Fold [Ribosomal protein bS18]-alanine N-acetyltransferase.
Amino acid sequence: MIKIIPMKEEHIPGIHEIEKSCFTIPWSKEAFEKELRENPLAYYIVAELENTVLGYAGMWVIADEGHITNIAVHPDFQHQGVGTLLMKHLIDEARSKNFFGLTLEVRESNVKAQNLYKKFGFINEGLRKGYYQDTGENAIIMWKYFNN
Ligand SMILES: CC(C)(COP(=O)(O)OP(=O)(O)OC[C@H]1O[C@@H](n2cnc3c(N)ncnc32)[C@H](O)[C@@H]1OP(=O)(O)O)[C@@H](O)C(=O)NCCC(=O)NCCS
């Protein structure tokens, strides 16, 4: 059974492999270490099956907002519900802490991720023009609001 558990340093090698296979500008292992060791705003989780990391997600908790920093699933395990499990967990956490909302940025071309976010009630709220350094692509800013 897939478990959603808090991210620990021992997960970072597996996370970094996924990061490299999913993103053109991957976070370094050190970036994840720094998040876990030094960032009091960080909230990170992994989806694990028999000690293998299938995916991960995280956010910065800023007052009553959750800023989702990353969500990714190993390419071999995509479109099998893992992203849904991770997003459900972040949303449950946000609801339990009475967040105002959750927000994130996504590449205009990343339809897969946008579909996942829309499924959970995220809506387009703005555009950051030329946000991504590698391609100059725009970022769509999405929000999911909770009616507290
Ligand atoms: C986006 C991502 C996290 C989704 O995770 P996942 O485990 O594949 O998602 P799920 O299997 O739970 O699917 C959830 C929804 O995502 C969307 N989705 C997933 N794969 C898709 C695909 N190949 N094409 C279109 N939509 C897709 C669908 O809306 C799907 O709902 P459905 O099954 O009812 O159609 C995953 O594709 C991924 O890791 N992509 C690379 C990293 C990335 O782009 N992260 C987001 C950065 S902003």
Q: What stands out?
A: The chain has one domain: 3-145. Residues 22, 71-73, 78-84, 106, 110-113, 115-116, 119 surround coenzyme A (CB under 6 Å).
